[in-house]
């Protein structure tokens, strides 16, 4: 709970610790890498879902707890998968593969953002990647769709070609705003510096 800030102006969670299986018990430790330590802003719909789950809990309590075992123990992956995930996937019905993993939600999150045109650096930071190279290596196939959209956008903004002059240069029609711009003379040293 101490890293979950639902009442902030921009609600967020700080990822500072990871639950790990060590010596036959679950313990909190440092995340895998330095870039795994990060702040993630939370969408309003998720904040609404989390509020009732944290109501009445102390700052050192876990958001998700085991039902059996010692009160207050954290809900770990294996327990969550066995008790809740499998049932939820089955209840989701047609269109949701039965072999979907919890980790696939992370991939879905990244894919949604990249397909919506979010910058890879933003997605990399949310995922805890140390660089956009990792993000591009894992999700590069998704950005093909974004690249197609970018080409369509640029194509729509380019002026129509009217003709070519004797030297083969494309002649275009300037917009009224472009007509008002000063003429650029590349022979002037001050123009080259600009």
Can you offer a commentary on this structure?
The protein is α+β, with helices and mostly antiparallel strands and 194 residues long. It has a domain at 161-193. The chain is 41% helix and 14% strand. It contains 8 helices and 7 strands, in the order E-E-E-E-E-H-H-H-H-H-H-E-E-H-H. The strands form 3 sheets. A 3-stranded antiparallel sheet has the order 1-2-5, with no helix packed on it. Helix 4 packs across helix 5. The N and C termini lie far apart (54 Å). The model has no long low-confidence stretch (mean pLDDT 81).
Please provide the count of β strands: 7
Major sheet attributes:
3 strands, antiparallel
- The strand line-up of the biggest sheet is 1-2-5
Helix tally equals 8
Mean pLDDT comes to 81
GO molecular function: DNA binding
Protein name: Phage integrase family protein
Pfam family, one: Phage_integrase
Organism: Geodermatophilus sabuli
Defining key terms:
7 strands; 8 helices; Phage integrase family protein; DNA recombination; alpha+beta; DNA_brk_join_enz; two-stranded antiparallel ribbon
Secondary-structure blueprint of this entry?
Blueprint: E1 4-5, E2 12-15, E3 18-22, E4 25-29, E5 38-41, H1 44-54, H2 77-92, H3 103-115, H4 120-127, H5 132-139, H6 143-157, E6 161-164, E7 170-172, H7 176-179, H8 189-193
Antiparallel strand pairs: 1-2, 2-5, 3-4, 6-7
Helix pairs in contact: 4-5
